[in-house]
Amino acid sequence: MNNSVGNTGRLLWAGLRALLVLTVICGVIYPLAVTGIAQALFNDKANGSEIKSEGKVVGSELIGQRYDLPLKKGQETAEPDLKWFQPRPSNGLGENSVNTQYQLILSGATNLAGDNKDLIKQVKDAQAAVVKDNSTADFKVKPSDVPAEAVTSSGSGLDPHISPDYADLQVHRIAEKNHLGVAQVQKLVDEHVDGRILGFMGEPRVNVLQLNVALKELVADKN
User: Where are the alpha helices (DSSP H) in 55-116?
Assistant: First the structure.
């Protein structure tokens, strides 16, 4: 009887020691070591790839966001603030959308088929809006000029990038709204085009938030 109790006690004490040791190693030492290595080698990425403007964090280069005018009283849908470069739609448009506001709590696609009538109407409406918004007195946009990502969302709905073609399409509007030269704005876009990863993976792209931060600085310098 005493031997049985003693053996049980030793097993419990051994289990408790193992629990304490593994808790310290796996729950304290390992996380601190990994965090320290990440901060030392990949500080920017470890902290969320933050983008700053005037010393304040304004977003992440990994997550898209919208640039809208403040909602007016009784208004349900925000209108884009056309003095900024606009991103691609966030997971579709309209009532069938999964996420129209780049909300981080939700990521996913609309899953509407390519021949879905609602999707076709949404894309056509979005195309018409892009044509209207980006046409100026001396620059007219045609429906055929509108790239696909200007009227469709990414698979996650959180893509922070647009194509150089879509950025170029917005240059004349941005110049007009901010009283800048077209060449100035075009140069800004060209400077923010990221090439293919390792020279062959993916497509050239422009991070919209980084571009808008640079635009803000350009406007501030002008004024």
Answer: none
For residue 3, the tally of other CB atoms under 10 A from its CB is 7
SS3 182: helix
Where do the H-state alpha helices sit in the chain?
Answer: 2-24, 30-41, 43-46, 117-134, 164-169, 171-178, 182-191, 208-222
- Cβ(214)–Cβ(192) below 8 Å: yes
Distance CA 136, CA 172 (A): 7
Q: If you search the block for the tokens 């007016």, which residue do you land on? A: 72
- The alpha carbon of 167 is separated from its chain's Cα centroid by a whole number of angstroms, namely 15
**Pair 222, 180: CB distance under 8 Å:** yes
How much is the pLDDT for 141?
A: 95
In sequence order, what DSSP letters do the residues of 31-69 get, joined into one string?
A: HHHHHHHHHHH-HHHHTT-EEEETTEEEEETTS----BP
Query: Which residues face 136 on adjacent strands?
Result: 139
pLDDT digits (tens, 9 = 90+) for 85-104: 999 887 544 444 444 455 55
